[in-house]
Description:
The complex is a heterodimer of chains A (about 450) and B (about 325).
Chain A: E1 7-15, E2 20-26, E3 29-34, E4 42-46, E5 51-54, E6 56-61, H1 74-83, E7 86-91, H2 102-115, E8 119-122, H3 138-143, E9 150-151, H4 161-170, E10 177-180, E11 193-194, H5 197-202, E12 206-207, H6 209-226, E13 230-232, H7 238-249, E14 254-258, H8 260-264, H9 286-298, E15 303-304, H10 333-342, H11 349-363, E16 381-391, E17 410-420, E18 423-427, E19 430-431
Parallel strand pairs in A: 1-4, 1-5, 6-7, 7-8, 9-10, 10-13, 11-12, 13-14, 14-15
Antiparallel strand pairs in A: 1-2, 2-3, 5-16, 16-17, 17-18, 18-19
Helix pairs in contact in A: 4-6, 6-7, 7-9
Chain B: H1 12-28, E1 43-48, H2 53-65, E2 69-74, H3 79-82, H4 86-96, E3 100-105, H5 110-116, E4 123-129, H6 135-150, E5 163-167, H7 174-185, E6 189-193, E7 208-211, H8 214-219, E8 224-227, H9 243-250, H10 254-259, E9 265-267, H11 280-283, H12 290-309
Parallel strand pairs in B: 1-2, 1-3, 3-4, 5-6, 5-8, 6-7, 8-9
Helix pairs in contact in B: 1-6, 1-12, 2-12, 6-7, 6-12
Amino acid sequence: MENTATRYLIRNARLADGTRTDLLLADGRIQELGTALSHAGATVIDADGLLALRGLVDLHTHLREPGYEQSETILTGSQAAAIGGFTSVFAMANTSPVQDTAGVVEQVLALGERAGYVTVQPIGAVTLGLAGERLAELGAMATSRARVRVFSDDGFCVSDPLLMRRALEYVKAFDGVIAQHSQEPRLTEKAQMNEGALSSELGLAGWPAVAEESIIARDVLLAEHVGSRLHVCHVSTAGAVDVIRWAKARGINVTAEATPHHLLLTEDLVRGYDARYKVNPPLRRREDVDALRAGLADGTIDIVATDHAPHPVESKDCEWDAAANGMVGLESALSVVQASVVDTGLLDWRDVSRVLSAAPARIGRLASQGRPLEVGAPANVTLYDPAASREFGRDDLAGKSTNSPYLAMTLPGRVVAVFHRGTATVLDGVLRAPAELGGREEPQHG
Amino acid sequence: MKHLLSTKDLSRDDAITLLDIAEDMADVSTREVRKLPTLRGKTVVNLFFEDSTRTRISFEAAAKRLSADVINFSAKGSSVSKGESLKDTAQTLAAIGADGVVIRHPASGAPQVLATSGWIDAGIINAGDGTHEHPTQALLDAFTIRRRLHKAASRGKGLDGVTVTIVGDVLHSRVARSNLWLLTTLGAEVTMVAPPTLFPMDMTGWPAAVSFDLDDAIDAGPDVIMMLRIQQERMNAAFFPNSREYSRRWGLDDERFARLAPTSIVMHPGPMNRGLEISSAAADSAASTVLEQVANGVSIRMAALYLLMSGDREES
């Protein structure tokens, strides 16, 4: 049985900047770079034609454990992440119990370590029970073994402006960031899809762009006023991109994310009332998709994050109004990013490394992740074949849930191998079994 | 025709065929024995997730006049609050052996989900889904207009050049949507009148003239004016200040009614809020088709059931 002590020699890979190199991974680190490295004692992987990317980092994942294990567990979510090329995921706080105490975030951290596929970094709730009334113990979570730096009530908006102000101010004490789910609640009561011509025709209650944009505008001004750090989750409208662009030009410390599905899919998919396409924020218009892509290309949007949201079959196999919001996205993310912004010429692979690895690790203050592939860095590496193409199917999903909007779509690219801290989690495009990972990994924070 | 889910995708030929069959069905209703053996041995389920006694008994009468067996399944409240999913309900009806399902549901698109899910193989008739469509209501309205205009010579005709003004809560009205698509397909010209708050936010692609001013619309002399019901729950949701102001600006009161041409038709899908969107004088006048609409509803629903359930449904 192989274990973490296995040395891997990756032969003739292409780095994001186009240069070719071998990579020797040993003792959890990148030990050597260069050509014609010695393969003595190492398992050799022929990477001719493959890209070697920094292990991907997802700032926005719903792992569902504790509480909703019928949808996903930390183990199955970690496996979905690994097969998608990720070496780290930030676990959103809307579990049951909510991740609003040091105890719960430490439990999530420990379960992630036990699973061993990726670094699971818990996110803390901003408010107790996500109720939007009182601040959770942000400091306790920050100083816990989970070292939480990202706080979010995702799923709900911190809509009370005073509470949002206080949260932004308070996390300055430990370099935290508030990741806001920007949705004005009164403007989106019973909302079912993007508000526009199509919602008018289909008779589905509208989720207007202004409900997102008005909260973002308020929050960037609050962040400026108190001198704190704001992260905007799942930006979905052209107007929101404009507001963030304005805020950055003004010097406000704001970062923003777009999801793969908002970069590829449009509201037209809702026409058949197939609840696989129900998501919050909703799929928007073609103009919004184009604006998000342009925003990602010019740096207004800093990162791509999946908002991986697993749901059991019964939550989607029903009438539209009754269906749950959300899509799984970890397994498809890199392919969707390639299809939407790389193959269209907007981003190169260095940009992809930035938006799917370096920048999310930096925003989340996760020093061990998102590092350049250089000697001495932790061996978090993803080998990817961008020339591949496949019809995305159920077999490509490694998590517990199958609510993917991409089933039966042809997507480019294929994750061939993934190394998390030197341990192979995926080889030859196949997820390795838990027993093959070599048992528990060491704690990631000393 | 396998299902009747909307009027948006109903062709002109199919619509006129349906209206013509409804003429035949109306003739049946004047006979001494008002019953046809067409659907003997077939089972129609009225699956109502919303209260609507009027629509349900109209479908029930239609099915019985075609000799079908009728089961009324009242699942008031949403399927979720009831604890049984639409899927389980549909599969139950399939197991019972339903040949046709008439569904009324508060969620837009529920009939389409039922028709495309594979849960049940029956013909599906949309009897009103959320704020989406109510195709049989639009068909009976078109039928009523055609009969008023062409009387016994209605068969084969469309509504070319007929001007129809629809007034009221367009935003929440499945009747308005279904009428817009069907009347336009049949050649009519549709104007919609409402407070700005009760129009959808974006009506790109709607083949209708839009106005906020009922007096202008009345003075334009429409052939047909159709008043929509104002639901009680709109009163307290800031769509308009109160019912008095609504009535003053957007109600068909006696004075506005008097300004209509003597040949104009006044329609209302019922039930009416007398004194709010329509005055009693207008509702009870000779111009009013309110009761004809109810009677014609049975003929239209007979035609729809006949088309979906007799013979080979897979054709066309």
